[in-house]
Amino acid sequence: xxxxxxxxxxxxxxxxxxxxxxxxxxxxxxxxxxxxxxxxxxxxxxxxxxxxxxxxxxxxxxxxxxxxxxxxxxxxxxxxxxxxxxxxxxxxxxxxxxxxxxxxxxxxxxxxxxxxxxxxxxxxxxxxxxxxxxxxxxxxxxxxxxxxxxxxxxxxxxxxxxxxxxxxxxx
Length: 171
Description:
- The protein has helices at residues 2-18, 20-24, 96-101, 104-113, 135-170; strands at residues 28-36, 42-46, 52-55, 60-65, 71-76, 83-87, 90-91, 117-118, 122-126.
- By secondary structure, the protein is an alpha+beta fold.
- It folds into 2 domains: 2-131, Immunoglobulin-like, CATH 2.60.40; 134-166.
- The strands form 3 sheets. It has a 4-stranded antiparallel β-sheet, with no helix packed on it. Strands 4-1-9 form a 3-stranded mixed β-sheet, with no helix packed on it.
- The longest helix is centred in the last third of the chain and has 36 residues, at 135-170.
- The protein is flat, with a radius of gyration of 21 Å.
- 22% of the residues are buried.
- Mean pLDDT is 78; it is low at 9-24, 93-99 and 107-115.
């Protein structure tokens, strides 16, 4: 009987660890939605399962469900063109604990629950004014947005290269 009890405790302990990300990071995540150079925009977020969240006035944080990305973020404000971006999920590093502690089953649990994915903590939406006070103001806005977009692409490339290097360590 004692052997059976010990075995039950072992199985329970291992199965708990096998869903590490589900426990440690959960299936929901707070994300902060902001609009560059604009406050007070209203934004709607929609995932692939057609779940919806609403931001009443940027900047604002909203809790979204992970695992059904990408998120489509649509922002509106009087005096600005409607802006829409798609935000992809990335792989959550906490899921790697499943390989070490629990093997493949934990990864499957995390992937199915959404815990294996993660959205950026901060999502920035650039809203273009319907009209600019001058050609110089429009040019400045365009240059600042282009610089922001280039910085985001550089970060994405850096993450990709880092993640590819991390994967080489596991192969």
